[in-house]
Amino acid sequence: MFLARVARSSARGEAQTRAFAAISSSTPSQIGSAVGPYQVFDRHAKRLQKDAAAARDGGARSATVDYVRDEVADRMMERFLDIKRKFNSVLDLGSGPGHFSKLLELDKTAKSIMVDSSEMTLNRDPDSEFEVKIERIHADEENLLQIVKPNSQEAIVSCLSLHWVNDLPGILVQIKEALQPDGLFLAAMFGGDTLFELRTSLQLAEVEREGGVSPHISPMTDTRDVSNLLGRAGFTLLTVDIDEVKVAYPSMWELLEDLSDMGEGNAVIGRRSIIHRDTLAAASAIYKGISPIFIAKQISYILLEMHGNEDGSIPATFQIIYMIGWKPAPTQPKPLDRGTGAVNLKEVL
Amino acid sequence: MTALKAATSQQTTPLRQLALHSTSTCASEASVYGKCIVATYTDVKKDICKEEFAKFGECLRKAMKRKW
Prior knowledge:
The structure holds 2 protein chains of 2 kinds. Chain A is α/β, with parallel strands linked by helices. Helix content of chain A is 39%, strand content 19%. In chain A, helix 7 packs across helix 9 and helix 8 (196-210) crosses helix 11 (277-298). Chain A is globular, with a radius of gyration of 22 Å. Chain B is mainly alpha-helical. Chain B has one domain (2-64). Helix content of chain B is 74%, strand content 0%. Chain B has helices spanning 2-11, 14-25, 27-39, 50-64. In chain B, helix 2 crosses helix 4 (50-64) and helix 3 runs antiparallel to helix 4 (50-64). The longest helix of chain B has 15 residues, at 50-64. Chain A binds chain B through residues 57, 204, 207-211, 250-251, 253, 277-278, 280-282, 284-286, 288-290, 293, and chain B through 6, 15-16, 18-19, 22-23, 30-31, 33-35, 37-38, 41, 44-49, 53, 56-57, 60, 68.
């Protein structure tokens, strides 16, 4: 009883110090600490990684590994085009070089405001590659409300950048605040199954060689949590769906190199700065050895015998969560009140 | 010219050498080790495939002409 009261009062104290985040049920140890949202990612290291990746070989290396983001931007655009509305301006949060903004067309959107924390990535591609007018803002995406005013944006989109945000509930609240009433939020982010093959291989290699595991792949948001998070942030008319992009690589080494060129290196706080070369070599051997099992889990064994890993390539899965939410407005359609139904469902079914 | 230079220097970084040797030069040793792990992957403990890795590691050290 006493404990419960202490927890409640400290939770209240925390709510006052944390402007944009509510207490997440999954991190009970944070209650009472009042230090702000739990820090998972080293944002500074991430910015340096992205800058370095975009600068490598004058941006050429970074451009060759655009395949995942371009594919996802394309699928995001399909969802965007389903929305029958014209926008004067769209804010692209964590835009990178503009994978999504490049696909915008003038008959639907007049202007895109690109926001990214990595200056090199933001300025990688010239303005001539965009059909719409663009404005680039170099700023930390985590502090959206310091960049734009509340109730100022018609639409906010984000293509594969939210997975590096420390305070996901907080950024969603900021996005909602920044939108005008009836404003659109459309985003794609990496889901929890992303790179599970690499995660498994590294864990097995570390356990067998060194006797323990350490974080190499970021913790990622579970699909089931996204609609709850959107709802908690105050969005209405939610649509959440998942999709996978699977890429085959010759071996683990090409995957690691491409991830690094994407600026997607490890930036978890408390990561080990090096991996022993024995562990890396072991992970590479395990990845190759275990790939048939990963493939078999997803397709039938018959298919595996037919086309399975014959070429010796390894699969890498990128799980993508697409989300659409709207800022509430009085003009929007709403569900009817409980008990107002006129037809008894028993009669229909 | 610079591209060629970059390509050759990329070939010789230690990590690239490790990548090359672990997937081609020592592919058979790697495969034996990989199979050993796959056979026990639901219950892996430290050094459970020690012998298999010793052979793989020896091959890598020989190919890399280094000791670690």
